[in-house]
Amino acid sequence: MGFPKNFLWGGATAANQYEGGYLSGGKEPSTLDAITGGSHTEPRRITFKTKDGQLESVTREHRLPEGAVGYIDPDLYYPSHVATDFYHHYKEDIALFAEMGFKCFRLSINWSRICPKGTDEVNEEGLAFYDAVFDELKKHNIEPVVTINHFDIPMYLADNLDGWSNRKVIDYFLFFCETIFKRYKNKVKYWMTFNEINFLRSWTQIGIHDNSKQAKFQAAHHLFVASGKAVQLGHEINPEFQIGMMVAYIPSYPMSSRPEDVLEALQFNRDQEFYIDVQVKGYYPAHKLKEFERENIVIEKVPGDDEIIANGTVDYIGFSYYMSTVSSANPENVKFVGGNQMPAVKNPYLAESEWGWAVDPLGLRISLSKLYDRYHIPLFVVENGFGAVDVVEADGSINDDYRIDYFKKHVAAMKDAIDLDGVDLIGYTPWGCIDLVSAGTGEMKKRYGFIYVDLDDNGHGSLARSRKKSFSWYQEVIASNGEKI
Ligand code: BG6
After folding, report:
1. Is 210 helix (H, G, I), strand (E, B) or coil?
2. Contact 14 CB / ligand 1 (< 6 Å)
3. What is the CA radius of gyration of the chain?
């Protein structure tokens, strides 16, 4: 009973939000280096130069004009440039993770650190940086869990090839994969191809200028082919590799038992499960093909794509779980609250975080059960957490009981899913185990960590690390293998 003996307790981060060093050691900019900070009320902006040399900016849901190239304005603050500076603090941070008892640590590799332009030129200094990180993890018996690509693309590929709209990017991505698979073949076992593949839809994330539905699904097709090829290549390089996919899972409940609401919820849920279907079952589900047909969306494939997708299915499902939402056939009657990368519908039975994300631990058990019943392969909760404003007391302590409360209930939900539903859950990596920049708002003030980092929304602060109250709570959870929560 309880969590399996070798359960992977750990924490999760992403290069663009944590690593910093954006031009250090031969790295060149990625799209996320040209996106400003923001807040609840002020959305983040992409800064770019038009074909005629005008400097402009748009929020992320807007398309970029054709021919626009990313531009970094020296007078603006871009949170990814320093982020919370893992680049210079990795030894200290890994020591803190080890003190908490981490069995694993999820990080992403910055594509433009390895291949500065995203093409087939390799930056040895970048490779050496991750060698040092993996060696440090090994010293502390911490297993790396690597997201190959977390929400960014080398700016050169966005500027010159229109990112993932272009099939050529599949080859460049594969070159990147081959480089890191070969280099870290004996250092990394757990990989994931694309972070939250269901959220990849804009210039910042995949480098596409046109963000229409047609363009988005054509790019998604290229991502599927790239993932399928990467899985096969990884297994050839080291058959021991465990290569997963990663999706943002936000279960939706019907607003009522009215069949129309139930159908809405079904449609919402399968829009996310579509990405899992393709990468786990190896083919496009019938409902999506029908949707494409109805909406005149034509996916250009080349012969062999379907086979690549069929033969490149993943070893496990990694997913983020923060919140749930509600579906209603009458959206005019519902109240919207905040949500992960989208507005979500208010559930009258649930409270929300300050950012409006519904807190729903039982939803995690429901999601785990549903995903396991549906796919029968191991599951890995690779993100979960509570974004909150932390207060540093006069004595330096940070009493984040709200976070402990959130985690307690989610760990209990995972335990139930294992004990009562028989789910094969292999690990748990709470998001932003050390404070980092928020992806949604670009803020520092929305914190997730067990470890506090002294940095504010404008980039001011000493970057000093300190332990929050949740640090020792999580330490005990890991030490007791989830028994003592
Ligand atoms: C997930 C992403 O969507 O949620 C992370 O994979 C992100 O990159 C996390 O940081 C939390 O979202 P936010 O907007 O609070 O940072």
Report:
1. coil
2. yes
3. 21
Report the sign of the C-alpha dihedral through residues 337, 436, 103, 403, in that order: negative
Q: Write out the DSSP string of 188-207.
A: --EEEEETTGGG--SHHHH-
The pLDDT tens digits for 386-428 are: 999 999 999 999 999 999 999 999 999 999 999 999 999 999 9
For the CA of 246, the closest atom of ligand 1 is: 6
Q: How far is CA 442 from CA 78, 80, 436, 452, in A?
A: 9, 9, 9, 17
* CA distance from start to end of the chain: 15
| Ligand 1, atom nearest to 199 Cα | 3
Please tell me the predicted confidence (pLDDT) of residue 55: 97
Any atom of ligand 1 within 6 Å of the Cβ of 18: no
**389-425 burial string, b = 16+ CB within 10 Å, else e?**
ebeeeeeeebebebbbebbeebbbbbbbbbeeeebeb
Using the mean position of ligand 1's atoms as its centre, give its distance from the Cα of residue 15 in Å: 12
pLDDT tens digit sequence for 10-35: 999 999 999 999 999 999 999 999 99
Q: How distant, in Å, are the alpha carbons of 10, 11, 109, 119, 157 from that of 435?
A: 15, 11, 18, 32, 30
pLDDT digits (tens, 9 = 90+) for 275-330: 999 999 999 999 999 999 999 999 999 999 999 999 999 999 999 999 999 999 99
> Considering the chain, what is the average pLDDT of its residues?
97
User: Which pLDDT score, from 0 to 100, does residue 201 have?
Assistant: 83
- Residues designated as active site: 196, 383
Strands 143-149 and 316-320: unpaired
Q: Using CB atoms within 10 Å of the CB of residue 354, give its burial: 0 to 12 exposed, 13 to 18 middle, 19+ buried.
A: middle
Digit-coded pLDDT (tens) for 78-106: 999 999 999 999 999 999 999 999 999 99
pLDDT in the model for residue 40: 79
Residues 6+ apart with CB under 8 A from 41: none
- SS3 sequence of 245-296: EEEECCCEEECCCCHHHHHHHHHHHHHHHHHHHHHHHCCCCHHHHHHHHHCC
Distance CA(163)–CA(149), nearest Å, equals 13
User: Where does 8-251+275-324+356-479 sit in CATH, by number?
Assistant: 3.20.20.80
Which of 458, 428, 431, 433 is CA-nearest to residue 443? 458
Task: Check if the beta carbon of residue 141 is closer than 8 Å to that of residue 101.
Answer: no
How many angstroms separate the CA atoms of 327 and 402, rounded? Answer: 28
92/178 Cα distance (integer angstroms):
30
> Average pLDDT in the 131-146 region?
98
Task: Give CA–CA dist 132/205, Å, rounded.
Answer: 27
- Residue-level pLDDT at 271: 95
Helix (H) or strand (E) holding 425: strand 425-428
Question: What is the rounded distance in angstroms from the CA atom of residue 312 to the CA atom of residue 317?
Answer: 14
Ligand 1 neighbour 440 (Cβ under 6 A): yes
